[in-house]
Amino acid sequence: MRSIHNVWRKSGALALLLILIVPVLAACGGQPAAAPTTAPAAQPTAAPTTAPAAQPTAAPTTAPAAQPTVAPTTPPAAQRGGRLKILYWQAVTTLNPHLATGTKDFDGATVILEPLARYNEKDELVPFLAAEIPTIENGGVAPDGTSVTWKIKPGLKWSDGSDFTVDDIIFTWQYCADPATACTTKAVFDPIANVEKIDETTVKITWKEPNANPYISFVGPNGMILQKKQFEKCIGAAASTDAACQVANLAPIGTNAWKLKEFKPGDVVIYERNPFFRDADNVFFDEVEIKGGGDAASAARAVCETEEVDFAWNLQVPKAVLEPIFASGKCDPIAGGSFGVERIVVNFSNPDPALGDKRSEPDQPHPFLTDPAVRKAISLAIDRKAIAEQLYGPTGEPTCNILVVPAAVNSPNLTCNRDVEAAKKLLEDAGWKLNGSVREKNGVRLVVSFQTSINPLRQSTQAIIKSNLAEIGIQVNVKAIDASVFFSGDPGNPDTLNKFYADLQMYTNGPNNADPQQYLQGWTCEERASVANQWNGNNDGRYCNPEYDKLFEQLKKELDLKKRAELAIKMNDLLVTDGAVIPLINRQTPNAKVKALKGPTYNTFDSNVWNIASWSK
Amino acid sequence: MAQYIVRRILIAIPTLLIISFVIFAILALAPGDPLAQFALNPAIPESTRELIRIQFGLDQPWYVRYVKWLTALAQGDWGFSFGTRGPVIDLIWQRLPQTLIVVGTAYLIAVLIAIPIGVISAVKQYSWFDQVATFLAFIGFSVPSFFTGLALMLVFAINLKWFPIVYNSTLNLAGWDGITEQIRQMTLPVTVLVVQQTAALTRFMRSSMLDNLPLDYVRTARAKGLADRMVIIRHVLRNSMIPVVTLIALGIPTIFAGAIITENLFRVNGIGQLLITSIQNSDTPVVMAITFIFACLTVFFNLIADILYGVLDPRVRYS
Questions:
Q1: Chain A 464-493, CB below 8 Å of chain B: which residues?
Q2: Strands (DSSP E) along A98-246, which ranges?
Q3: Comparison of pLDDT for A59 and B235, the residue scoring more
Q4: How many H helices and E strands in chain B?
């Protein structure tokens, strides 16, 4: 009797366990599980929980009902079609490029949206929505640099079938010009005083002040144009907080070859053909998929060894890992252009902790790095070739210039071969004598602190440089800082690159558009980071040279492109020969594609998938 | 009993508040910036980043942000993600199915494997079977998932090409093809997780059985002439399950939290992957939501485990 009782009790307990667990699992699992399986077509971006949100994404699906009349006839080539599979190790989180938080978002948006023009792999402009590139010769660019007039292609349509108009361009400017929208791309819209409609296909941009770079706005990844109809109510704070705008950010209507089919933020985006695309007949792939996540090394394996994907982005993996993967012969690496120059910044101010608040302030000269002989000796002693060959492999090449792109401004004048003897002689002549293994002069010892972010590649580079400098009698104490701190710009943290509480620091940077003015501004006296500007100045080395500033003033005023390039080269040469900064490696975004895929190119100033509409297999 | 439950729930409320406060404080005080990727991009100057911080409410002191977060949560609003600029809760709903199916399956398999192994190991203590099981359990314990994951990937996905390395969350599961493909892509991540979880559970089950085997009631049952199998299954196993069931119940919240390393390695778009990418990108609202939901589940399953314990073991009484 008793045991029966116990059996009852215990089965009751197990039943209770099941009763408690099953509904929890069901409640949590059931609802979302239904979303991707039952309705894979349009709405996954529309949250399964918020019902009204579904409308805006559903809207575009109603329009293509008109398809048959407009849509292209069946593709002629039999092989055409299929899905283009792209793998990024960072996942796309939004498709509104103006609210992007990373390259992956710009690239994800590129499949749908277009700017007026884009840069190609040779850093030349290619018209996209524009009919032609405006120049002074064709009258598009005002000779005094005050305005630029763009003509758009006639008959352009959005993927919902409505007409693309000049108003959409004007709207995109208004959207980002409002500070409350908090566009990541705001800086490219800042120089604009007004955008006006001249006629149905012509738009005129007037600048606040004469602008030497007429292609700053509506060009490249920062210039993609949003549909006014879809985003009209999203100007200001509503851009991020309004439910309809949140849905729109994840499902923009565009003009490029594909439109959104399904989007799981932080995971995968699937695009399908846009029947209203102007050149729909020549688009090869029916669908495009951008999958995100994982790590760069296995992304390389997925394209080169298992061939699960056609294209993988930015395979920043140590050479020793990457080369054997590439050796399989099933894929082609695509690298070129520049993703930035890995450089050593020299601190011209004194980072001595004894100075307290005055530490690394521009008015505190560095005890020995202000001596040009020491800076030049450091540059001469570094073995750039070894760093490039042993560590970077296909992802970087040695460079003597701090400004390497576009090709027109890449100075041909400088060499930077390693010469240990010359470096020693420089130091000897300047009075730095060996005392034991370290040189000194007037009691000042050449002991430098050298900081960078935590990254295996950078720590290996630090090690090479440490041994290089030891050879010439400079002792290096290396320090590595977590990247999220080092690059944070957090005024409360002592370890940021902006504060630069060290003698040398290393990171990558480069111009972000084909005009180098903004980038070159980072070495002017005015830009020196200090307490006064909350360390927001771009000149973290606190370099200040009136000669350089004079050249920069000239560059600001110069409107002739050829003369600008000459000035930029002059400035680059001055910075490097003066040892203001020590360029090391021109880094390249190493993408890879399967052999059969045609079309992908490297790109410096635009998206890696800038020409995706023309890719084929 | 009812009184006990009510009291426990009342205690849970301040506990959860304190947990949320501590997590929020840690996140707020940790360095990081949602736009850190753009730190050096001259196209996104500091002034623009400042505007975005204001839009995200990051210009206010963290305790003000905490109060705002809490009041919004009280109204059912989890906030919007800095990365997607969309509601946080949508992201979590989108991720949960993948996590439940991968981590949940692994947990289920682990339980189903671990219990019989633990029982046999205990009954035939120091036998050949026990030695092998112990050896494997120690391997499972001590080899980290990122190693087993990479090793399995290298052998079975890259060299043998039996399984894919890119997890596809958009499969159409309506047909057999989709289901087979789903099983194929789940195999490796599930195996990695099973190896780990089985190891722990086996050891637990084994020691629990060993505690019970020498007890008087077992000898009595045997003396009464019951078959050995009967004694083990009816009597020893039942009693040994008491601590194991509580352990299993306590492990359930971890299913919802996902498996950070394994998910990331195999590109399973689960909660664990969402959590780690959100931490990396300083996407505070998402991190807050996941950790807080996890805290709630832990507290809840703790309560369930305690109640179950009382139900399973009549000697335990709550007052």
A1: 482-485, 487-490, 493
A2: 117-119, 125-127, 147-151, 192-199, 202-207
A3: B235
A4: 14, 0
pLDDT value at B262 more than 60 = yes
Instruction: Tell me if A240 and B41 make a contact (CB, 8 A cut-off).
Output: no
User: What is the C-alpha separation between A172 and A177, in angstroms, rounded?
Assistant: 8
Residue of B40, B46, B101 lying closest to A507 (CB–CB): B40
Per the CB < 8 A criterion, the answer to whether B304 and A12 are in contact is no
Residue B103 confidence (pLDDT) above 60: yes
> Closest Cα partner for B274 from B265, B266, B286?
B286
First to last CA, chain A: 76
Quote the pLDDT of residue A51.
Answer: 34
Nearest to residue B122, comparing CAs of B234, B202, B227? B202
| Structure confidence at residue B306 (pLDDT) | 85
Sheet holding A147-151, edge to edge: A147-151, A202-207, A192-199
Give the pLDDT of residue B37.
Answer: 63
- Which residue has 């040695």 as its token pair? A398
* More confidently predicted of A39 and B89: B89
Q: Could you tell me which of A526, A540, A530 has the C-alpha nearest to residue A580?
A: A540
* b/e sequence B266-300, b meaning 16+ C-beta within 10 Å: bbbbbbbbbbbbbbebbbbbbbbbbbbbbbbbbbb
Residues of B in contact with A483 (CB under 8 A): 36
Structure tokens that stand for B195 in this block: 């190896």
Gap between the Cα atoms of A58 and B61, Å rounded: 40
- A187 and B48 within 8 Å at the Cβ level: the answer is yes
How far apart (Å, rounded) are the C-alpha atoms in residues A78 and A71?
18
Question: Is A39 touching B (CB cutoff 8 A)?
Answer: no
Residues in chain B within 8 Å Cβ distance of A20 = 304
Which residues of chain A, if any, have pLDDT below 70? 1-78
Which class for A574: exposed (0-12), middle (13-18), buried (19 or more C-beta within 10 A)? middle
Q: What pLDDT score was predicted for residue A421?
A: 95
Query: Which among B285, B261, B293, B291 has a CA at the least distance from the CA of B34?
Result: B285
Of residues A541, A538, A544, the one with CA closest to residue A511: A538
Q: How confident is the model at residue B39 (pLDDT cuts 50, 70, 90)?
A: low
| Paired tokens of A72 | 């292209």
Supply the pLDDT for residue A240.
Answer: 85
- Scan residues 151-210 of B and list those with Cβ closer than 8 Å to A: 153, 157-158, 161, 164-166, 168-170, 172-174
- Amino acid at position A181, single letter: T
**How many Å apart are CA A352 and CA A346, to the nearest integer?**
14
Instruction: Please confirm whether the linkage preceding A406 is cis (ω < 30° from 0).
Output: yes
- Measure the N-to-C terminal CA separation of chain B; round to a whole number of Å: 7
User: Which residue is it, tokens 């890696």?
Assistant: A608
pLDDT of residue A15: 43
> Is beta strand A396-398 parallel, antiparallel or unpaired with respect to A581-587?
antiparallel
pLDDT at A483: 82
Residues above pLDDT 90, as percent of chain B: 44
Question: Higher model confidence: residue B209 or residue B34?
Answer: B209
Task: Sort out which chain B residues have CB atoms less than 8 A from A524's CB and list them.
Answer: none
Q: Each residue of B143-190: pLDDT tens digit?
A: 998 899 999 999 999 899 899 988 988 888 888 888 999 999 999 999
- Min Cα distance A260 → chain B (Å) is 14
Residue A83 pairs with which residues in a beta bridge? Answer: A287
Tell me how far apart the alpha carbons of residues B308 and A16 are, in angstroms, rounded to a whole number: 8
Of the candidates A450, A402, A405, which has an alpha carbon nearest to the alpha carbon of residue A119?
A405
How far is B240 from A354, CA to CA, in rounded Å? Answer: 65
Q: Cβ(A504)–Cβ(A449) under 8 Å?
A: yes
